[in-house]
Amino acid sequence: MQKFSVVIAGKHYTSISLEEEFYRQLNILALEQHRPINDLITEVDKTRTIPNLSSALRLYVLRTLLQKLEKKEELSD
């Protein structure tokens, strides 16, 4: 588990604690969406329903990867 410094909404500095694999995947997702990782984190922060941002980010990564997998499986059927 590592701490990463991020900026939410372009002004709120904070840190998140994530496993390196989750942070790496979050970076990949941001690149695929053609936006900075801080923008992606801001969106997750605005829409989260759980109090812990790090947990919300893990769930975001998991859900996004599961959606990708489902789409891939649909295309192969």
Major β-sheet, in short? 2 strands, antiparallel
Q: What letter string, H or E per element, gives the SSE order?
A: EEHHH
Shape: elongated
- SSE-based structural type: alpha+beta
Q: Kindly state the percentage of residues in helix.
A: 55-70%
Radius of gyration: 13 Å
Give the quaternary arrangement of the chains.
single chain
* Poorly predicted regions: none
Strand order, main sheet: write it out.
Answer: 1-2
Average of per-residue pLDDT values: 91
CA distance, first residue to last residue: 38 Å
Number of strands: 2
Q: Tally the helices.
A: 3
How much of the residues is beta strand, in percent?
15-25%
Integer count of domains: 1
Task: Characterize the structure shown.
The structure is a single chain. The chain has 77 residues and is of the alpha+beta class. It has one domain (2-76). 62% of the residues lie in helices and 18% in strands. A two-stranded antiparallel ribbon has the order 1-2. A hairpin with a 3-residue loop joins strand 1 (2-8) and strand 2. The chain is elongated and about 45 Å long.
Give a summary of the structure in a few sentences.
By secondary structure, this protein is an alpha+beta fold. It is built from 3 helices and 2 strands. It has helices at residues 20-32, 37-47, 53-76, and strands at residues 2-8, 12-18.
